[in-house]
Known about the structure:
Blueprint lengths: L2 H25 L4 H10 L2 H24 L8 E7 L2 E6 H12 L5 E11 L2 E10 L5 H19 L4 E11 L9
Parallel strand pairs: 4-5
Antiparallel strand pairs: 1-2, 3-4
Helix pairs in contact: 1-3, 4-5
Amino acid sequence: MRLSYRFFLAFFSLVVAALAAFFIAxxxxxxxxxxxxxxxxxxxxxxxxxxxxxVVVLLISLYLFLxxxxxxxxxxxxxxxxxxxxxxxxxxxxxxxxxxAARHVRGIREVKPILRYNRDGLSVVLRIGINPDASIPAVxxxxxxxTRDYLEEKAGIQVRGISVLVxxxxxxxxxxxx
Length: 178
């Protein structure tokens, strides 16, 4: 979920909760909120502010409404179209394939793949942790090549680019036997 979507959703949830609390107070017979609202709206500048805030809330609600119906193209990759339909693979399946491919590279402790789709196709960012005795340039090049070959062989996907981000350089933790 995109950050802007989460922000708008949280903001909108707070606005709806405040409105619900306001109407609950009115329904319970508490007249103070209603008289406070009348006093607030009696000032012309406050009416303008309330109008602008209402327009912003309306735009956010329309944005959330419209984005709720958009189908994310990032969920799956179309591998091929046959006479019977489409063959697709999910992001999680691709990430599993990438992790499996990275296990073949000596010196890599962990791999966290990030898949990005753009007009050119699939790009992969590999966030890796390696052992300190491994050569970073050699391991990076090897994991890029193995990942590209593995995805092309197993999934039939042409990868446009593979970037490597070395996040940590440390020894593997050995399991203790007690």
